[in-house]
Batch of 2 targets.
Target 1
Amino acid sequence: MMKRYYPDCKLIIFDLDGTLYEDTDHFDHYASLLQERVAPEHQEDFMDDYVAMKRGEHTVSIGKAYDAVNDSVLTLDPLTLKVTHVQDWDGTEWDKERIEHTYSGDLSFDFEKIIAIGDGWWLPYSSARHHGVSIEETYECYSRTKEFMVTDAFQLTKTPGLKEGLLKLKEEAEVVLVTNSEEDDVQRLLEELGLKDIFPEIIPLAQKPVQTKKIFLELMEKYGVKPEETVSIGDNLINEIAPALLLGMRTMYIQPTGIELEHDNLKVVTGLEEVFKENL
C-alpha cells in the first residue's frame, strides 16, 4: 500500500471530498441551486458556462484561479502557484506588463476575491460569481448541497478496499483527516462511507488553501516528523498538493482524468482504489 510509494512516511494527511469518495453528482446539484439565484435573463448563460467548464471548453478550469474583482482567470504554475497567464472571462489575453503589474506578489486565496479552482465545487461557484450571485447566496447553496448529500436521495460510492487499507495503514503511520467541511458533515459522510472512527484526529473547517501550510506545519510539529516523512493526499492541487511540495513534504495527487506533472515528491494516481487495490 502506501509504503510502496513512500517507505519512510510516518504521518499521512488525507483530504475528504474527492479523496475518500470521488462522486461528482453533488457538483451538478450545487450548480442547479446556484442557477436559481442568477437573474432570469442570465440563467442559461450561467449553465452554458458551467457545462463548458466540465467539458474542458471554457477559460475556467480546475487548477486555475478566478479573480472575482477583475473577472479574470489565472493560470498558475502548479508547483509554485505563481501566475503565468491571465485571460478575461471571454478568453481575451492579458499582456505581460499588465499581468506583472496586477499580480506581482504571491497570491492570497481568500475564497471571496481570489478563488482557487482546485476541484469541482469551484466551477459552478465561479460561474455564479461571474453572473452576479453574491457570496452569501453561494454559501447558502453550498450548505443546502451538503444537506442533500446526507439524505437518502444521494448515495456515496464506497471505494473498494479503502476501509481495509486505512486500517492497515494505521498500524504503520499516523493518519489525520484535514477538510474544509464542517464537523457535522464530516461525521455524517464518514459514517455513510463506513469510515467512522478510522481517523484519530480530524481537522474540520480547515480553510484550505489559506491555512494549509500552517496546519501542515503544526501537525508535523505535533507528531514529531520531518517534511520528508509526511504525505499529503488529496484531489485538489492548490489546496493539498502545491503547499505540501513547497514545504518539502511528499504528496499523492488524485486525478482521475490524468495530468502531466513531474516532481520528485509527487505521485499522481487515478484514485485510492489504485493505492489500496491489494485489499480487494
Target 2
Amino acid sequence: MKAYILIIALVLAVEKTSAQQPITLDTIYANDQKNVALFFPEPIRQGITGSENFVFTYNREKEQYFGLLQAKPGMESNLLVVNRNGLVFSYIVKYKKQLDKLNYFIPKSKSIGNEKPIVADSAKVNESKKELGNEIYYYQKFSSYLLDRKQRINRLQKRNEGIVLSIENIVFDKDELYFVIQIENKSTLDYDLNFLKLSVETRQKGKRKSLQRLYQEPIFKYNSPSKVAENETVRLVYALPKFSISNDRRAVLELNEKNGERSLKLKVSHRFINNPN
C-alpha cells in the first residue's frame, strides 16, 4: 500500500513548483470500536490508506460526501482522499483507544492541492494529450503496484498440457476493473500466444440452448507477453472499463496458442466480477 501512496505523491509532485513550502498535515485519530466520519465539501471519488491496519470506507458506486475511518492498534499511517472535482486532502492517521472526536467537517481550505494541473487557455491544444499521458502513467503505476501486491482471490485456474492459466486478483479502481493474470508454462515447449481475450457469455434459454458471447476490450495491458518460454511464469494486468454481470452470465478468459492446440478457457462466476477487491 505504501507503493500506491508514492504513486499518487508522484502525480501530485508534477503539479507543484519548487518554491512551494512543505505542508504540515493534520492528524485524525480512530480505533476499532467506533466509526470516525469525515465529511468533505465534494463527493469522494477515491480514498486510500497507507497501512492495512487503517480502513477507510466510502460508497464506490454512488458518490457521497462522507467516508468512515476505523483503525487497529499499530504504527501511524496516512490517508489520501480525492474529491470529484480533483481536490486532494491528506492526513496523518493514528490509533487511539479513547476518541475525543468522531466527526470531522472538512472545508475546501484544508485541501493540499488539485490532482490536475491548472493550464492557461493558450495551452488547451496540448491539454488532451497531457491528460491521456497522465492516464497511461496512472495505469502503468497502478498495474505495477498490483503485481507487487500479495493479495489473492479464491483459486481461479485452468490447466492444459502443462500450461496453467490463472486469475490471481480482480480489483476495482476509479472506473476500471483490473485483472491480475498469470500464465505458467510447465511444459518443455515454448508457448506462443495467438491471443488472450476476456468475454462475457450469456446462456440462451429454451429448447435450442446456445451461448451468446460479447468480448470486452481492455483499455490498457501491462506486461502482456507474446511468448512464454518453457518453465517460465508470466504475470500481467488487463484494465477494462467497469462492468457487472447477472447470475445467468459469466466471464470467460480465453488463452489461444499460435500454431498449436494448447488453448484454455477459464470461466469466472458473476460473483467474482461483481465483488472485486
